[in-house]
């Protein structure tokens, strides 16, 4: 077992001030952003604020 760790630390990639809310950024057509994926998971699990009860895959697909 090695006692010294000589490997460099990973580079920080999100250091710009405008990189804060990447979740809302629109992607290319036909893709979903992180916020939309989170909403889909909540709808499927029945935990979304804007829908009562769980939705099946067909209902989620129609919504998005």
Describe the structure concisely for a colleague.
With 64 residues, the protein is mostly helical. The protein has helices spanning 34-45, 57-63. The chain starts with 33 loop residues before the first helix and ends with a helix.
Description:
The protein is an all-alpha fold. It has two helices and no strands. It has helices at residues 34-45, 57-63.
Main attributes of the structure:
64 residues; 2 helices; mainly alpha
Secondary-structure map with pairings?
Elements: H1 34-45, H2 57-63
How many helices does DSSP assign? 2
Low-pLDDT segments, ≥5 res? none
Mean pLDDT: 79
Share of residues in strands: under 5%
Shape: elongated
Q: What's the helix-strand series? A: HH
**Total E-strand runs:** 0
Radius of gyration: 19 Å
End-to-end distance, in Å? 52 Å
For the sheet with most strands, the description reads: none
Q: Which percent range fits the helix content?
A: 25-40%
Structural class of the secondary elements?
Answer: mainly alpha
């Amino acid at each position: 077992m090695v006692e010294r760790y000589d490997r460099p630390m990973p580079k920080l990639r999100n250091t710009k001030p405008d990189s804060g809310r990447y979740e809302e950024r629109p992607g290319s057509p036909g893709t979903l952003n992180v916020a939309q994926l989170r909403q889909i998971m909540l709808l499927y699990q029945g935990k979304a604020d804007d829908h009562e009860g769980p939705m099946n895959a067909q209902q989620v697909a129609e919504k998005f």
